[in-house]
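Input (structure):
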């Protein structure tokens, strides 16, 4: 996999995906394509059971590259093509079969905040800030991403004013799982990823699938879907191994089958 704006490291079933487009990791067509490519690949890799998503530098992601937008000519279909690429970078994280832990190391603005909110578990450094400043440049967007995580009043204030919110406040509101000193960010995210990677990959995959599947379902339909998944899991090799390990008082060895 040829990557110019992202670095990828896989060890002990944990993949670390790092944005690396200085100075502020702004998303352009190339970076969006690489994000989609990498997370699509994570779904299919048997040597990956959890993913940590972070960035190099002092900024996680400053959002869309405004310079690229100024080069748009308005040619028929141009915006539709761009929007399709933009959507797919987010979907690739949301739909990745492996859990994704965001390790937000600095400012996450606009598309950068949306990228973080697509992850399953969010961890941030104490000096990270979050915001959706599209309104400041005459644009709009991000409503769906924010309403999944924030109460309506806070989401509207951020979107309507471009308010920047410190990581400590999002931790207080329950959006972030952890808010830690900068030097503890990656160890914290890696500890979560390593714990997930130690579980049955089949069960984890089905849980990730159920998170997405039940989001817009009724309680009855969502729980029925989960029950069906549980029945399927109970017949798996991993489930038999887990039961045997419990009886034999040893750590299970999962194979994802």
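Output (sequence):
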């Amino acid at each position: 996999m040829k990557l110019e704006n992202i670095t990828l490291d896989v060890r002990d079933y944990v993949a670390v995906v790092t944005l690396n487009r200085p100075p502020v990791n702004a998303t352009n067509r190339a970076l969006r394509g690489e994000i989609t490519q990498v997370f699509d690949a994570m779904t299919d890799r048997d040597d990956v059971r959890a993913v940590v998503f972070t960035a190099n530098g002092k900024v996680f992601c400053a959002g869309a590259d405004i310079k690229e937008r100024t080069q748009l000519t308005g040619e028929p279909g141009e915006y539709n093509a761009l929007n399709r690429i933009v959507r797919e970078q987010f979907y690739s994280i949301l739909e990745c079969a492996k859990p994704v832990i965001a390790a937000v190391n600095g400012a996450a603005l606009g598309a950068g905040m949306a990228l973080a909110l697509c992850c399953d578990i969010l961890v941030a450094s104490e000096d990270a800030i979050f915001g959706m400043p599209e309104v400041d440049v005459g644009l709009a967007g991000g409503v769906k991403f924010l309403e999944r995580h924030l109460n309506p009043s806070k989401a509207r204030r951020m979107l309507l004013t471009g308010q920047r919110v410190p990581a400590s406040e999002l931790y207080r509101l329950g959006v972030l799982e952890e808010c830690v000193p900068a030097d503890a960010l990656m160890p914290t995210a890696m500890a979560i990823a390593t714990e997930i990677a130690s579980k049955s990959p089949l069960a984890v995959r089905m849980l990730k699938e159920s998170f997405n599947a039940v989001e817009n379902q009724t309680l009855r339909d969502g729980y029925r879907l989960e029950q069906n998944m549980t029945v399927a899991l109970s017949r798996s090799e991993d489930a038999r191994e887990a039961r045997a390990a419990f009886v034999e008082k040893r750590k299970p060895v999962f194979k994802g089958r």
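Notes: The first strand starts at residue 6 and ends at 11. The chain has eleven helices and ten strands.
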